[in-house]
Amino acid sequence: MFILSGLHTFGAYLRLMGRVFSRPERMRIFFKQCLKEMAQLGVGSIGIVLLISFFIGAVICIQIKLNIQSAWMPMWVSGYTTREIMLLEFSSSIMCLILAGKVGSNIASELGAMRTTQQIDALEIMGVNSASFLILPKIVGLVAMIPFLVIFSTTSGVIGAYATAYIGHIITPTDLTAGMQHDFTQWYFWMGAIKSLFFAFIIASVSSFYGYTVEGGSNEVGKASTNAVVSSSMLILFSDMFLTQLLS
């Protein structure tokens, strides 16, 4: 029964995406909507990305220095490990899990409210492809902004690590800098950026699906928002495993 329900949901998702990825009727309005979604979903998320990444970078550096580093390890291990964790996983995968909660619930709630107030039905009556008009700008906007959020996250995490050096005196700035520069692999940054593009698509499309297909009243909007966050998070973790293996 669970498998049949999952297949039915997946089929409905594919049918909706088929409607979403059609040529916009008015390109000027489409680009205007994309800019609006980029500001709302991307720029609006910069604050929480910077704040969380800053403290995560600081905590990672402290934990490595106090609990893992020993006399048998070079002094730059803390900086090296902090950089690798931020590049490989946190700034792409973990950050997108956080955004799934913020952005995903926002998208599902917005579309769900439009469905329950019959705004989507009104668009359909006017002959507008409501799926493409409402969902495609959200997907394009979030996918376009996610690489910048990855850059901001990594940079903020590194600044947080340096805060432990200059303010907390956990590690010397010289040792931290040596670790940050040691054996840097540029591909790790690009791998995180590529993974984040897939994760952004998952967040925007899955959340839009649950919000767009809401049936019922305001209670169903809340359930759709919860389902959007849970499903997006699970798909991000599932795809992260395969993308990491594929890109490594």
Features of the shown structure:
single chain, 248 residues, mainly alpha, elongated
Describe this structure in words.
- The protein is mainly alpha-helical.
- It has one domain (about 35-245).
- Helices cover about 85% and strands about 0% of the residues.
- The protein contains 9 helices and no strands.
- α4 runs parallel beside α8.
- The longest helix has about 40 residues, at about 75-115.
Layout of helices and strands, plus pairs?
Layout: H1 2-20, H2 27-42, H3 46-68, H4 77-116, H5 119-125, H6 130-166, H7 173-181, H8 186-212, H9 218-247
Helix pairs in contact: 1-6, 2-6, 3-4, 3-6, 4-6, 4-7, 4-8, 4-9, 6-8, 8-9
Tally of individual helices? 9
DSSP E strands, number: 0
Which structural class should the secondary elements be placed in?
A: mainly alpha
Describe the largest sheet.
none
Q: What is the end-to-end distance?
A: 37 Å
Domain tally: 1
> Averaging pLDDT over every residue, what do you get?
87
As residue ranges, the low-confidence spans are: none
Please summarize what this structure is:
The protein has 248 residues and is mainly alpha-helical.
